[in-house]
Write a structure and sequence with these properties.
Elements lengths: L1 E5 L3 H12 L3 E5 L16 E2 L12 H8 L7 E3 L5 H12 L3 H29 L10 E5 L2 H10 L1 H5 L5 E3 L1 H7 L12 E5 L3 E2 L2 H14 L3 E3 L3 E8 L2 E9 L2 E5 L3 E4 L5 H5 L9 E11 L10 E4 L4 E5 L3 E10 L8 H14 L10 E9 L6 E6 L2 E8 L5 H16 L19
Parallel strand pairs: 1-2, 1-13, 2-9, 4-17, 5-15, 13-20
Antiparallel strand pairs: 3-8, 5-7, 6-7, 10-11, 11-12, 14-17, 14-18, 15-16, 16-17, 19-20
Helix pairs in contact: 1-8, 1-11, 4-11
The structure holds flavin-adenine dinucleotide.
Flavin-adenine dinucleotide binds next to helix 1, strand 10, strand 14, strand 18 and helix 11.
Length: about 425
């Protein structure tokens, strides 16, 4: 079976790897010179099933409004002059009820937990190294209100058997020793010991190299111009390279184009609710390892994650709804620097840091879209819309998608991950 995977971010590459394991003849196409160079390039490095939750939730509309007037707010909005932005925001608001939030969170936790297990298995099978650590996530809270919200939010974790532990400020400093100097600023924390960390782009690059040894072909610097259809099948993809225009064909097509998935699928009559939500990160070389985090610390006040790699710290977060704009806003850099200095003042040299931005492919319900596109085009498969947690959910999503294409039964329920859930 020949499969063409569109997109070589972490989602496209994991899809290709699991399809190759099934014995498929896989080609991956991407416009970038190498894999993992767009949103998968410099994310916050969290593999965090315990932290999996949709952004749309009770109280979020009011909070979002208040954030509009705050200097270090985690969210900002700028009209991109499209009707599509308004439609997406209205779908997002509809998902803010407690009932929708709980349902969406349970789907995300299910996939994320499975995905972390798939990643562990992949690591055991291949020995892949990506500056990974298995030391959990520590969410830190500064206000009673944050603690109260968190106490309500752990029901799904308990129901799904995800281990967690509430800790006081001293407990925070036991888990993350460098926090000892700032523990007076904290009211407490939630430790998620089964979460992991790692460099997503390094993982994507090394997995692509492994996939190549299994026969997967990579066509980089190939921009997908359009889809070619014939009756009820997708019959090919037109690509543009430095050598000119060319058509590629296969038996099945996997759409893993991140934030750009919607644009291409419109030509098949599918309106995927995937909007680009811009985020920023700062990668800082470590100058004092003892003053740095040992894993991920999630600062709930600013919704910023601070993650330890071998010799670097990645600080990532913030959300801007502003279309496909990739301008690096220097004010955001200052905010990230402030967040790092606030919790780990002696850890890194921010003057040597690299600043980055990426577009999270977000669905309004936070859950990715995995499975057959629709019955009109049975050979088109979607693996997109992973939003804030694409690195966390990549291996599980790739495995599930490969199972569905090969007509094997996935190990987890997938019917509610499909595009058809929006039709109900
Ligand atoms: C600041 C920030 C922090 C984050 N932190 C975390 C985290 O800690 N943990 C976590 O789990 N997730 C995190 N995420 C989310 C995660 O990074 C994304 O969900 C994930 O990278 C999405 O992967 P993808 O493969 O779908 O998209 P991408 O990596 O963007 O891949 C899509 C690919 O499609 C290609 N493409 C698009 N259009 C075309 C075309 N027309 N022709 C050819 N190629 C095309 C692009 O070149 C790209 O390589 C974060 C995101 C951001 C922005």
């Amino acid at each position: 079976m020949r499969v063409l995977v569109l997109g070589s971010g972490v989602i496209g590459v994991t899809s290709a790897y699991y399809l190759a394991l099934k014995g498929c003849d896989v080609t991956v196409v991407d416009r970038q010179p190498s894999v993992g160079l767009e949103t998968s390039f410099a994310n916050a490095g969290q593999i965090s099933p315990g932290y999996s939750a949709p952004w749309a939730g009770p109280g979020v509309p009011l909070k979002a409004f208040q954030w509009l007037f705050q200097r270090y707010a985690p969210l900002s909005m700028r009209p991109d002059l499209s009707r599509w932005q308004l439609q997406w925001m209205s779908q997002f608001l509809k998902n803010c009820s407690l009932e929708r939030y709980t349902l969406n969170k349970s789907r995300m936790v299910r996939l994320a937990e499975y995905s972390r297990d798939c990643l562990r298995e992949l690591r055991a099978d291949t020995g892949i190294q990506y500056e990974q650590r298995s030391r959990g996530t520590l969410q830190v809270f500064r206000t009673q209100k944050q603690l109260d919200v968190e106490f309500k939010d752990i029901t799904v974790l308990s129901e799904m058997g995800v281990p967690f532990q509430h800790v006081d400020p001293d407990g925070c400093a036991l888990i993350e020793p460098a926090l000892i100097h700032v523990k007076d600023q904290l009211l407490g924390g939630l430790h998620l010991p089964d979460d992991e960390t790692g460099d997503c782009q390094l993982f994507t690059t090394r997995l692509a190299a492994l996939a190549q040894t299994m026969g997967v072909k990579f066509r980089q610097e190939a921009t997908i111009n359009r889809l070619i259809t014939q009756q009820n099948l997708l019959s090919g993809v037109e690509i543009k390279t430095t050598h000119g225009v060319e058509n590629l064909d296969a038996d099945h097509y996997v759409v893993a184009l991140g934030s750009y998935s919607r644009e291409l699928m419109l030509s098949l009559g599918l309106n995927l609710p995937v909007y680009p939500v811009k985020g920023y990160s700062l990668t800082v070389p470590i100058i004092n390892g003892d003053a740095a985090p040992v894993s991920t610390v999630m600062d709930e006040t600013y919704k910023v994650a601070i993650t330890r790699f071998d010799q670097r710290i990645r600080v990532g977060g913030m959300a801007e709804l502003a279309g496909f704009d990739l301008t690096l806003n220097p004010r955001r850099r200052l905010t990230l620097e402030k967040m790092l200095r606030g919790l780990f003042p002696q850890a890194g040299d921010v003057s040597q840091a690299s600043f980055w931005t990426g577009l999270r492919p977000m669905t309004p319900d936070g859950t990715p879209i995995i499975g057959q596109a629709n019955s009109m085009y049975p050979n088109v498969w979607l693996n997109t819309g992973h939003g804030t947690l694409g690195w966390t959910m990549a291996c599980g999503s790739g495995q599930v998608l490969a199972d569905l294409i090969a007509q094997d039964k996935p190990a987890i329920e997938t019917s509610d991950l499909q595009y058809s859930r929006y039709k109900r």
